[in-house]
Structure formats: structure tokens, C-alpha cells
Design a protein that fits this description.
The structure holds 2 protein chains of 2 kinds.
Chain A: E1 6-10, E2 12-13, E3 16-17, H1 19-35, E4 39-45, H2 50-58, E5 63-68, H3 77-91, E6 95-99, H4 104-114, E7 119-123, E8 125-128, E9 135-141, E10 146-151, E11 158-162, E12 179-183, E13 194-201, E14 214-218, H5 225-237, E15 241-244, H6 246-250, E16 271-275, H7 281-284, E17 292-297, E18 310-313, H8 316-332
Parallel strand pairs in A: 1-4, 1-6, 4-5, 5-12, 6-11, 7-11, 14-15, 14-16, 16-17, 17-18
Antiparallel strand pairs in A: 2-3, 8-9, 9-10
Chain B: E1 2-6, E2 9-11, E3 17-18, E4 25-26, E5 32-34, H1 38-52, E6 55-61, H2 67-76, E7 80-84, H3 94-108, E8 113-117, H4 128-136, E9 140-150, E10 154-161, E11 164-171, E12 174-178, H5 190-198, E13 203-204, E14 224-229, E15 238-240, H6 245-261
Helix pairs in contact in B: 2-5, 3-4
Classes of the chains: A alpha/beta, B alpha/beta.
Bound molecules: flavin-adenine dinucleotide and adenosine monophosphate.
Chain lengths: 333, 265
């Protein structure tokens, strides 16, 4: 059997293509150009406008395969997995990338089992091996302590989930042309053994740390729930999300969705500002792919300084108020 | 209610060593522990049993020493443990691991729910749970932060996703992977520890679970680790030690300038 083409699994929410999909297209384009094959975006959704689907082409896809059905209004594993399986069996792509989001990390492992594919989780680097044309995947493992390079030489498609925000999308080009295929899948593949009863939107946008460009995080060094508010205030001034180490979560100052690290979320913001966090390995595991880190801690030996771009060895109760004030002044001035 | 909990023995993340030749972990000299994220699955199983009755079986695939991990969760409150250990299982990736666990579960027979950890802290993939569900062809849910209701044929759970919580109903039997928010794991009890030492933990190999040899271990794994490297830890960043208010102000100005350089302001 011949396997050809690079696929990305596009994600949508209420008919809007998510940024992570454009990030995947950049990864996919790099690979498809090296291989000299097409880049295809697969999207499962309901009543997505042609204009929205075309954006995938502007961001680099040569083709979009779109399955429209009401069942895709909300994420449910069965119809996602079974529809993707049907499409893979029909077109035989050689590479299939998904985002390492809650959706991608749910769908990809089940698909990989069903099509006997190798799957590498949460990759931060992807390339094509000269000669063999195998996909070379790099990912942090063991709490970010090592980088593993992985390939799946004898199985197709080669599958990977890619860490969100580990790269920037390409600039969209409205001049790009490509085709949108409206695909139908078998009725039985649209059935679901789970159903959505309700969706409780996160009221507090500052808790969406995985999508945030800027995160301001606080740790136990903030001392009390009351003074943790400085962290919230700084996040507010920067239009960022609020993060935390495990301590403030366990102490009840802030809720679990804010937790960064091994038993919380892995984040890749452009800017990670943290105060009163020691930088335990379990915390660092969550921020290894943050692009820039500013750390404030009064212990010169704090581990967090090992990974910081700007290390401020000082009392956070001195630094944060001034920083907040200066940012406020900028807005007024 | 019959609850199955796949648990993994992992090295403590804080001091892990890798063999650069084989790309596998050096296990000697590293204290192995139960994957901390599996303790939430164990705890939830114990709570479900307290509420609905039934039994809890913990299963683990790993080296013979993984028996200790099973004993630990038995001392917390699991009823039984099954150890999947054999040369042929060694070096398995998530595809092959989920195959072996699914075969073992088929052997166990009827069950109501399988509870997995969100991910193991060593491999860090979170792929084995959904993989088991795919092999067994049962419905599943990931990132479960609450089990709200258990009925005769369905389970209602809350799952945490990027922009909120999704409340879903799932047909039984089902597999759930749980996150830290779901509970607070208890410690082993003294009685439990005594029981865990006495209880017999059966050891299963490929024949016991009717496994296809070609699906096992390194040979049966589609993925290959070809290289291990150490990421650069130090960023050689700028370091400031302000000693008075004026110096603190200067540092703050530098931080703001940095924000501007990185285009977040
Ligand atoms: C299995 C497992 C999973 C875990 N998962 C996570 C996880 O997901 N996320 C996570 O964060 N942790 C996790 N942990 C916990 C982790 O090991 C640490 O205990 C935790 O990160 C410490 O939080 P902290 O830095 O806020 O507190 P501490 O380590 O107590 O550090 C507080 C810091 O604040 C500084 N400080 C104090 N006062 C001031 C001041 N006035 N000004 C400036 N600095 C000050 C101190 O110097 C210190 O460095 C996990 C642990 C285990 C075992
Ligand atoms: N070798 C194993 N034995 C038993 N359960 C496992 C094993 N590996 C993974 N699991 C289960 O699958 C979950 C996810 O693991 P992973 O996909 O390796 O991150 C773990 O939290 C366990 O519940």
C-alpha cells in the first residue's frame, strides 16, 4: 500500500478554527515541502462557513477535507475516532499530526491503536530524515528532564501530537488557492456512546492558561490568599492568565485549572512571569517550553533562576507593587 | 461494581538517569514509586466502592519489582492486584502496553469501569488509557475531574478541558482517565499494609492473556526511541539583586523594557 501526504487534524470550536490548527499547518508545511507532497487539513464540524474553511488554505493547506455533521457540534470521542479512521483508510496519509490539546490527546491514541500506527506525544520538534524520509519527532519526557528523538520506521501513518504554542503560525496568504472537499462518512461512524449533557464555560478567562500568551504565576512565597491577589492584579494589567504552583492550589487560594506543572497543565506562553515559586522539578516540567521567563524570588539559590531569562533576587512584596503601579501609569500616560 | 485500575511503577522524576545507548531508563539506584497521578485513580476507585459496593483490581505491567507498587495500592484499599511481567513485554511503547493491558482485562472478564491516571510521570504520554479503550472497543472519557453519577447503564462525569468543563454521560462499561482535581488520595493504612503483604499477587505472562507475540515488547512497538539528549537547562539569563527602592525601580523598568522587546506590551 502506498501512503502519501501530510495531514493535520484541525480543531474548531463553535465553527471557528482554533489557532492551534494554524500552528500545526506551519509544522505540516515544513514536512510536506520536504517530502514534496500535499498538506491536508481534516476538519470535523458543524456548519462551518466556507470562509472559515478557506482560512486553512491561507495558512498553508493544499486541501481541506471537511465532514459536516451535527454530532461534531461538541467533542465526543466515538464519532471523531471512527470518522478519522474511515478517512485514513480511504486516503492513506503518511503523516498525521494533531495538537496536544485535550481533544488531540484523546483522539490520537485511539486512532493510533486502531490503525496500528506509532504515536509520539506532545512533540516540540518535527523533521524529515534525509534518505529514509521518516518522520523524526522530538519531545521532552520524564518531566522535561530529557529530550527523546523518536521515529516509527515501519508503520504508517506516522502520528504525533504537537505541543500547543510551541511554534507560531505562518502569516496567512489570502492568495493561496486550494480545494475544500465536503466528505461524507458512513452513518455508523457518526454514532456516539457518550453524549454531552452540558458545557460549563470557564467564566474566569484568566484560568485558560494553555491558550495564554502571557501568564503571571504565583507560589507559596505569596504567603496568603489575600496577597496572592497581587499576582491576579499583575495578570490583569498584562491581559494575561493567572498561573500557580501546586501549593496555592492545595491551599485553596486559586483553583486547579490554574495549576502549572506535572500534575497540572503544561504551558507554552510567550511570557511567563512568576513570583514566590521555588522551581521544583514538577513545576519546571510545565514551563520547559515557555518562550520567556521572568522570575522573582528572594532566595538566590531558587531553582527557578536556572531557567529564567530575567532573574530578580528580591522580595516579591517590594517588586510586584512597583511593577503593577508602573504598568498602570503607562496605561494612563 | 467491578473497578479495574491500571497503575504504573515509575522512577521518582526528580532523579532520573537515561542510558544513552538504548534510550531506556536506568532503573537501578532510583527509588521506584507508584505513578503519583495513578493515586487519584486508586482513590476514586476506593470512593466508588464505598458508595456502590463491589471490588477493585489493580493491574500493572512492569518488571517483577512492580509487585511493590501493587502492594502499595492494595494497602490503600484495592482488593486485588495482578502483575503482568515477562521478558517479552519489555521495551513496550504505548501501543503495545495498551494491548497487553487490554488482553489482561479481557481475561479478567466483566467489569464496570476502568480508572487510569491522566498520564505516567516518566513516559508522560497519557496515551495508554485511550489506547486500552480502543483495544477493548469501549466508550471512554479523558481528563475526568468528577464522577457525578453512576447508574445501571451509564456514568455521568465532568471533564476539564481548555475552556471549561464538559459534562458527559457515558455507556458502561467505560474507561476514565482522571486528573488531580478529582480527589485527595489517602495514605495506606497499617491494616492495609499487613493485608498487602499476605495477599497473593498472580503473575501473568503472554500465554495467560492469549497475547500475540508479534504485538509485544520492543519488537511489537511501532515507535523507536533513536536518541536521548539532555535539554539545555540554564538560560544564562540576566540576574538582578536590587538592594533598595531605587534599584528595585530600575529592575522594574528593565522588566517592562523586556516586555516591550518581546512585544507583549
Ligand atoms: C507527584 C508530584 C506532582 C507535583 N505536581 C506539581 C505541579 O503540577 N505543579 C507544581 O507547581 N508543583 C507540583 N508538585 C509540587 C512541587 O514539588 C513543589 O512542592 C511545588 O512546586 C512548590 O511550590 P512553590 O514553589 O510555590 O512553594 P515553595 O517550594 O515553598 O517555594 C516558595 C518560594 O517562594 C520564595 N519566597 C518566599 N517568600 C518570598 C518573598 N517574600 N519574595 C519572593 N520570594 C519569596 C521562597 O524563596 C521559595 O523559593 C508536585 C509534586 C509531586 C510529588
Ligand atoms: N505499564 C503499565 N501498567 C499499568 N498501567 C499503565 C502502564 N502504563 C500506563 N498505564 C496506565 O495508563 C496511564 C497513562 O500512562 P501513559 O500513557 O504512559 O502516560 C497511567 O496513568 C496508568 O493508569
Amino acid at each position: 500500500m502506498e501512503y502519501k501526504g501530510v495531514w493535520i487534524l484541525g480543531e474548531q470550536n463553535k465553527g471557528i478554527i482554533q489557532t492551534v490548527s494554524y500552528e500545526l499547518l506551519k509544522r505540516g508545511k515544513f514536512l510536506s515541502e520536504k517530502l514534496g507532497v500535499d498538506l491536508v487539513a481534516v476538519v470535523l464540524g458543524y456548519q462551518i462557513s466556507p470562509k472559515e474553511l478557506n482560512k486553512l488554505i491561507h495558512y498553508g493547506a493544499n486541501r481541506v477535507i471537511y465532514v459536516n455533521d451535527q454530532i461534531f457540534q461538541n467533542f465526543l470521542p466515538d464519532p471523531y475516532i471512527n470518522s478519522i479512521m474511515e478517512l485514513i483508510n480511504k486516503y492513506n496519509p503518511e503523516i498525521m499530526l494533531a495538537s496536544a490539546t485535550s481533544t488531540g490527546r484523546t483522539v490520537a491514541p485511539a486512532v493510533a491503536v486502531k490503525c496500528h500506527a506509532g504515536l509520539t506525544a506532545d512533540c516540540t520538534g518535527l523533521d524529515i530524515e534525509e534518505g529514509s524520509n521518516n518522520l523524526i519527532q522530538t519531545r521532552p519526557a520524564i518531566g522535561g528532564n530529557i529530550l527523546a528523538t523518536i521515529k516509527s520506521p515501519n508503520h504508517r501513518p506516522q502520528m504525533a501530537t504537537v505541543r500547543p504554542h510551541s511554534n507560531q503560525p505562518l502569516e496567512p496568504n489570502p492568495g493561496n488557492v486550494g480545494e475544500v472537499i465536503y466528505e461524507k462518512v458512513k452513518e455508523k461512524n457518526l454514532k456516539s456512546r457518550t453524549n454531552q449533557i452540558a458545557f460549563i464555560e470557564m467564566k474566569d478567562e484568566s484560568a485558560n492558561i494553555q491558550d495564554a500568551e502571557i501568564i503571571v504565576a504565583g507560589g507559596k512565597g505569596c504567603k496568603t490568599e489575600e496577597s496572592f491577589k497581587m499576582v491576579r492584579e499583575l495578570a490583569h494589567q498584562l491581559n494575561g492568565a493567572v498561573g500557580a504552583s501546586r501549593e496555592p492550589v492545595d491551599l485553596g487560594w486559586v483553583k486547579y485549572p490554574h495549576q502549572v506543572g506535572l500534575s497540572g497543565k503544561t504551558v507554552s506562553p510567550n511570557m511567563y512571569v512568576c513570583a514566590g515559586i521555588s522551581g521544583a522539578v514538577q513545576h519546571l516540567a510545565g514551563i520547559k517550553t515557555a518562550h520567556n521567563i521572568v522570575a522573582i524570588n528572594n532566595d538566590p539559590n531558587a531553582q527557578i533562576f536556572q531557567v529564567a531569562d530575567i532573574s530578580v533576587q528580591a522580595d516579591l512584596f517590594d517588586v510586584l507593587p512597583i511593577l503593577i503601579d508602573k504598568l498602570k501609569d503607562r496605561k494612563v500616560g | 461494581m467491578k473497578i479495574l485500575v491500571p497503575i504504573k511503577q515509575v522512577p521518582e522524576t526528580s532523579n532520573v538517569k537515561m542510558d544513552p545507548e538504548t534510550g531506556t531508563m536506568v532503573r537501578s539506584g532510583v527509588e521506584p514509586i507508584v505513578n503519583p497521578l495513578d493515586l487519584y485513580a486508586v482513590e476514586e476507585a476506593i470512593r466508588l466502592k464505598a458508595k456502590y459496593g463491589g471490588e477493585i483490581i489493580a493491574i500493572s505491567m512492569g518488571p517483577p519489582g512492580a509487585k511493590k507498587a501493587l502492594q502499595e495500592v492494595i494497602s490503600m484499599g484495592c482488593d486485588e492486584g495482578i502483575l503482568l511481567s515477562h521478558r517479552k513485554f519489555a521495551g513496550a511503547d504505548t501501543w503495545s502496553t495498551s494491548y497487553v493491558l487490554a488482553q489482561a482485562i479481557k481475561k479478567i472478564g466483566k467489569f464496570d469501569v476502568i480508572l487510569c491516571g491522566e498520564r505516567a510521570t516518566d513516559g508522560d504520554t497519557g496515551q495508554v488509557g485511550p489506547g486500552i479503550a480502543a483495544w477493548l472497543d469501549i466508550p471512554f472519557s479523558t481528563y475526568v475531574s468528577q464522577i457525578s453519577e453512576v447508574n445501571k447503564d451509564t456514568i455521568t462525569v465532568k471533564r476539564i478541558v481548555e475552556n471549561g468543563y464538559q459534562l458527559v454521560g457515558i455507556e458502561k462499561p467505560t474507561l476514565l482517565t482522571v486528573v488531580k482535581e478529582i480527589n485527595f488520595p489517602r495514605l495506606p493504612t497499617l491494616d492495609g499494609k499487613i493485608r498487602s503483604k499476605k495477599i497473593e499477587i498472580p503473575l501473568w505472562g503472554p500465554e495467560d492473556i492469549d497475547a500475540k507475540i508479534e504485538n509485544l515488547g520492543l519488537k511489537g512497538s511501532p515507535t523507536r526511541v533513536v536518541k536521548i539528549s539532555k535539554p539545555k537547562v540554564s538560560r544564562d539569563g540576566e540576574v538582578y539583586k536590587p538592594n533598595n527602592e531605587k534599584e528595585t525601580e530600575e529592575v522594574v523598568d528593565r522588566i517592562i523594557e523586556f516586555f516591550e522587546q518581546k512585544e507583549i506590551l
